[in-house]
Design brief:
single chain; alpha/beta; Rossmann fold; 2 domains; 4-stranded parallel beta sheet; two-stranded antiparallel ribbon; 18 helices; 8 strands
Length: about 450
């Protein structure tokens, strides 16, 4: 407003404030607190601070759908309205291989376990993978809708939409720069050995990429589907479309509509703060430490520019996928406004404090399954019991957590069955417990 008089600037600011109050009031009247939360976050910081000091008009509602009751009194401020959203407790998280998904799974496991919520569970970390998810692949349900799906499975819209309706759930997944992700999955899963290129992390991937593999070999073993476009595969794209640009772009547009948030592993902190906002959770809920990191001996020592370029060309569908959702991530962050970076700074400080409280600087090897080890953190030995439990949950392996959740589920179901009347215990069962329909012959 350079060149305008102070009185004119005050008038314009006053008009803008009135507009903001009217818009937010309209949203509240029509019961859309989430929209209020999203819209006000995008305002400039100075305007948000001014709005937070302005009391809202008294609103009368004929029903009780307004968060906190049927009336918003004059003491209710815009700031209070902005904070009113309900934590999301139904989440489908589509895990992708070697993209930081185990860390997200740990976040979801901790949140659900602490609140007694339920999970879709299978026999191991994979539920039906590499086939598309079907209900019969998971343990039987108890008649209630599960709160979370956070195990490896392959995207299947029809079944997943049935179990996690879009109007009552959030859909989350995570992707990673394909150059890093493909090298990681290739060596972690031993893809080079499967196709006869040996175990050397650097030479095997270089040899593999000289020609790639033929279409018929993509299903050679259970893990071989990860040999090309592994992230697109996990997200449900059929192999036959890998070289069809139009089909790939169309499928990405479809995924964009299905998922509420596609996290980017390369920007994990930013993604975690977005996750907190999308799910209306607290900072504490999304704190994490890096887990399931490969041992150095399983990493390619150095990757030449030619190998990197070949990874991009061989995994072209994954490259297009990553570039699209990397762009959408930053668009979402931009739409969140200045307050996002305030949250990010707070989150990073909390994360650093937690790590220094829980762990030493010494790394250790952590057994994840069979004879497979990954890098692990070394916990401090002098932790008080409550903090120790919190730190242990942060680093609990996925297999260990799943075994615990399976037992918890089994105990819960056993309790339900024990509560049912035992029709075979005749001495304990009688119809004389009620007399409404007592037999009275003529």
């Amino acid at each position: 407003m350079a060149g305008t008089s102070p009185s004119l600037r005050r008038t314009l600011l006053g008009c803008l404030l009135v507009m903001c109050v009217v818009i937010i009031t309209f949203m509240v009247v029509f019961d859309n607190a989430d929209l209020v939360n999203s819209w006000t976050r995008r305002l400039p910081k100075t305007l948000r601070q001014t709005l937070s000091e302005v009391p809202s008009q008294t609103l009368q509602r004929s029903d009780e759908n307004v968060t906190g009751g049927g009336e918003i009194n004059a003491d209710t401020t815009i700031r209070e309205l902005n904070l009113k959203c309900s934590p999301v407790q139904h989440v489908l998280f589509l895990k992708t291989h070697k993209a930081g998904s185990s860390t997200v799974t740990n976040i979801l496991f901790r949140y659900g376990d602490a609140r007694g919520l339920t999970f879709v569970l299978g026999d191991d970390t994979l539920i039906g993978w590499p086939t598309r998810f079907r209900l019969g692949q998971a343990f039987a349900f108890d008649g209630t809708r599960p709160n979370f799906l956070a195990s490896h499975t392959r995207f299947n819209k029809k079944t997943m939409n049935f179990l996690f309706p879009h109007d009552a759930s959030k859909y989350i997944t995570i992707v990673r720069n394909p150059v890093k992700q493909f090298e990681s999955v290739f060596n972690y899963m031993g893809v080079g050995k499967v196709f006869g290129f040996g175990n050397d992390p650097t030479e095997s991937i270089k040899a593999f990429l000289k020609k790639g593999i033929e279409f018929k070999d993509i299903t050679k073993t259970r893990s071989s589907p990860l040999a090309r476009n592994p992230q697109s595969f996990d997200l449900g794209l059929d192999y036959k479309f890998y070289q069809d640009a139009k089909a790939v772009e169309g499928y990405i547009a479809f995924l964009d509509k299905e998922f509420d948030l596609v996290m980017i592993s390369d920007y994990f902190d930013e993604s975690a703060v977005l996750l907190k906002r999308v799910l209306c959770w607290e900072f504490e809920d999304v704190l994490f430490v890096k887990t399931n990191e490969r041992l150095d001996k399983e990493r390619a020592v150095s990757i030449s520019d030619d190998v990197k370029e070949n990874i991009k060309r061989w995994n072209k569908a994954d490259m297009v996928l990553f570039e699209h959702f990397n762009k959408t991530l930053w668009n979402k962050i931009k739409m969140e406004g200045e307050s996002f970076y305030e949250d990010l700074a707070t989150f990073r400080k909390m994360k650093a404090d937690l790590k220094s409280q829980c762990f030493t600087d010494q790394m250790s090897n952590q057994l994840v399954y069979g004879n497979k080890y990954v890098k692990g953190l070394t916990m401090r030995s002098d932790l008080p019991p409550e903090l120790k439990q919190k730190c242990e949950r942060m680093t609990r392996t996925e297999n260990n957590y799943l075994a615990y959740l399976r037992k918890k589920r089994s105990d819960r179901l056993a309790g339900i069955f024990r509560a049912l009347p035992d029709e075979d215990a005749q001495q304990k069962v009688s119809w004389d417990v009620a007399s409404d329909f007592k037999y009275d012959p003529v």
